[in-house]
Amino acid sequence: MSRITKRFAALKADKRAGLVTYVTAGDPDPALSYQILKGLPAAGADLIELGMPFTDPMADGPSIQLAGQRALKAGITVDATFDMVRRFRKETGDNDTPILLMGYYNLVYQRGVERFCKEAAQAGVDGFILVDLPPEEADQLKPYAAAVGIDTVLLTAPTTDDKRLPAVLKYASGFVYFVSVLGITGTKSASEEAVRTHVERIKRHTSLPVGVGFGIKTPDQAAAVARHADAAVVGSAIVDRVKAGLDEKGIAKPDLVPGVFAYVKALADGVRGVRKV
Amino acid sequence: MATTPNSFRTGPDERGHFGIFGGRYVAETLMPLILELEQAYDTAKADPQFQGELKYLLTQYGGRPSPLYYAERLTRHLGGAKIYLKREELNHTGSHKINNVLGQVLLAKRMGKTRVIAETGAGQHGVATATACALFDIPCVVFMGAVDVERQAPNVARMNMLGAEVRAVKAGAATLKDAMNEAMRDWVATCETTFYCIGTVAGPHPYPSMVRDFQCVIGEEVRKQMMEAEGRLPDTLVACIGGGSNAMGLFHPFLDDPGVRIVGVEAGGKGLDTGEHAASLLGGRPGVLHGNLTYLLQDKEGQITEAHSISAGLDYPGIGPEHSWLKEQGRAEYVSATDDEALEAFQRMCKLEGIIPALESAHAIAHVIKLAPTLPKDNLLVVNLSGRGDKDVPQVAQRLGMKI
Ligand SMILES: Cc1ncc(COP(=O)(O)O)c(C=O)c1O
Fold first, then answer.
1. If 0-12 CB within 10 Å is exposed, 13-18 middle and 19+ buried, where does residue B242 land?
2. How much is the average pLDDT of A81-104?
3. Cα angle: B255, vertex B259, B263; to 5 degrees
4. 3-state secondary structure at position B23
5. Pocket perturbation via mutation, ligand 1, pick of B200, B213, B390 by most ligand atoms within 8 A of CB
6. Where are the domains of chain A?
7. Close Cβ partners of A101 (under 8 Å, ≥ 6 residues apart)
8. pLDDT band at residue A34 using 50, 70 and 90 as cut-offs
9. Which residues have a Cβ under 8 Å from the Cβ of A234 and sit 6 or more positions away?
10. What is the pLDDT of residue B5?
11. Can you tell me the mean pLDDT for A188-206?
12. Which terminus of chain A has fewer CB atoms gathered within 10 Å of its CB, N or C?
């Protein structure tokens, strides 16, 4: 059983939804980014998405675009991202919190898909979320990821209708990520009613857990999602806390890391306040 | 190594792949809409009414067919191949872009879309899109890099006059790649009502083949016109390459004529060895960007690097996937021309033929200046004059130190 599957089973036993936190690897610099990664579970993250910065993040809004630019400027690489995960596993002894790499396919393709999967698995990565790899192209990745036990979390969107869902689910493992709004990250938010309807619809097609993301900015919104989904995914709003911790010259203020953790804790409180039957 | 196919004109496969190239690397949100577009296009393509409307527009509104003109002075001056110019610059709006846009906007109308977006580099595709949207009374938003807004100011004014909204994109190098990112971001949020009119043979399937089909009118006319003029097919075809649409439109109808030599000219910027260029086939490697797998300018990790070209329309780090495939198949040759060579060709064209070419097209002419003298006098060479240079007048005047 993969760490992701185990974590969702544990959440279910706890009768609550999970909090999935997204941070961009290397933002605002590799050292602080590692400190953030290390402290996320204690702050209340149940699963961690680690964004791999890409020069052309077509599905991301300004918050994550800027985070990627900060990280690239500070010298983040794929190797350094793998190293962050490796250090996390070794230094924290945390062998339960799943870490998923999120990003765009070109970085995987350039390294060679098979090699990328192997190195990611060796570093302690549990899943991939590749925004620009829909089921139409996912067969390029799936066999290599499966061979090393890495889950492929595919995205579904409001435009993914019942007819198409099975095609997406064919390649999905770990959980299903429902992108709750039409649009890029960090912009619009979905209504609770829309989240409920779509999650119910997806669940008619799969027994995989469903995580819902895009546009969740407040503990209340996270709680609203937690009422219907198995996990709430928060990205841009956390990344905005990193930015808020930088002065006008882009230098980290002392409260950057604590500021991120305080915000994650508030989100976690929101999610954990919802009891599931 | 793949074996040589029986035909070079059958691609892509049903998944949009030309060999390993092409495909559909887009966010799931867009995927269902892209499938819908593919279906709508397949239906339209086979519908005589759609084809009839398009033909009417291309002829009566666009001004087709464009002449195939024997450039006698240029030919004599270079002293080699017999040079013909395919006069796409005479089309309405001043470039080949209108061929594709009329097709796509007609399709948008047919699909019931109520808004059209486009990316543009030189502004020619933006102007063509703004024009068709004015004609069809559809709101239009054009994304353009802030640097290009600056260097192609005449086209920005034209788009505004035509009623389009031009959004200056400041991200990245603020050129064509960034405009395309921003257009894609808009599209993800608006895809249920908005039609994305891509300006070249790139993007997710079906765009590369759809745009190619709309541009093939160029090569099909050349076949006929050359038969009329010379009683045989041309020997050499030359076209500039940004994303590759004017080139593909000229080349594709001749891909299965082995006697026809096909040459695409990429933007060499300050020189291939300087790293400051836009020659994705000559200086890049296969990778994934903007919905397709194709040759890209990128670093070791796969981060996309900035392209450099004097010509805003060629200033793009990628290329249409079918060109990547033709390169690997060896069916077409790809070369480059530098900024300086293009400027020189621009001026020669003005003085020898009385035609002010677009800086993009000047790259193709720059290569003809090198190639034609090496060819026999009976070599029939066609160069695609993809656009006129009015938009470039301020920029070139400045480069040449002229007062305007
Ligand atoms: C006149 C002209 N030629 C060529 C191009 C390059 O595009 P493509 O390679 O798709 O023909 C442009 C693009 O803006 C253009 O305006």
1. buried
2. 98
3. 60
4. strand
5. B200
6. 3-272
7. A49, A50, A51, A52, A81, A120, A125, A127, A128, A129
8. very high
9. A19, A20, A21, A22, A213, A216, A217, A222, A267
10. 84
11. 96
12. C
In chain A, what percentage of residues exceed pLDDT 90?
A: 98
Q: Which two tokens stand for residue B192?
A: 């249920």
Strands (E), A173-209: 176-179
Neighbours of A135 (CB within 10 A): 22
The label of the residue with tokens 């879309």 reads B113
Scan for tokens 């149940």, then name that residue.
Answer: A46
In this predicted structure, which of A78-87, A187-196, A251-260, B68-77 has the lowest mean pLDDT?
Answer: A187-196
Residue B58 in tokens:
């291309």
- Among chain B residues, CA nearest to A158: B29
Fold of the domain built from segment(s) A3-272: TIM Barrel (3.20.20)
Amino acid at B387: G
What pLDDT score does B197 carry? Answer: 98
* Measured torsion, CA atoms of residues B211, B215, B216, B219, in degrees rounded to the nearest 10: -150
Three-state DSSP state, B330? coil
Distance B168 CA to ligand 1 centre (A): 19
Confidence (pLDDT) at B2:
53
Q: Can you point out the beta strands (E) in B75-114?
A: 82-86
d(CA A76, CA A29): 8
Across chain A, what does the average pLDDT equal? 97
> Which pLDDT value is given to residue B404?
77
Task: Report the SS3 class of residue B302.
Answer: coil
pTM value > 0.95 = yes
Cis check for the bond before A258: say yes or no (omega within 30 of 0).
no
Low-confidence stretches of chain B (pLDDT < 70) are: 1-3
Tell me: pLDDT of A149 over 90: yes
Distance from Cα B275 to the centre of ligand 1, integer Å: 22
The predicted structure's pLDDT at residue B172: 78
Q: Report yes or no: B100 and B124 within 8 Å, Cβ to Cβ.
A: no
Which among B239, B215, B243, B224 has a CA at the least distance from the CA of B98?
B215
- For A9-12, which contacts have Cβ atoms below 8 Å and span 24 or more sequence positions? A10/A96, A11/A46, A11/A230, A11/A231, A12/A230, A12/A276
What is the C-alpha to C-alpha distance for residues B357 and B74, in angstroms, rounded to an integer?
A: 14
Average pLDDT over residues A88-110: 98
How many Å lie between the alpha carbon of A56 and the closest alpha carbon of chain B?
7
pLDDT (0 to 100) of residue B403 = 84
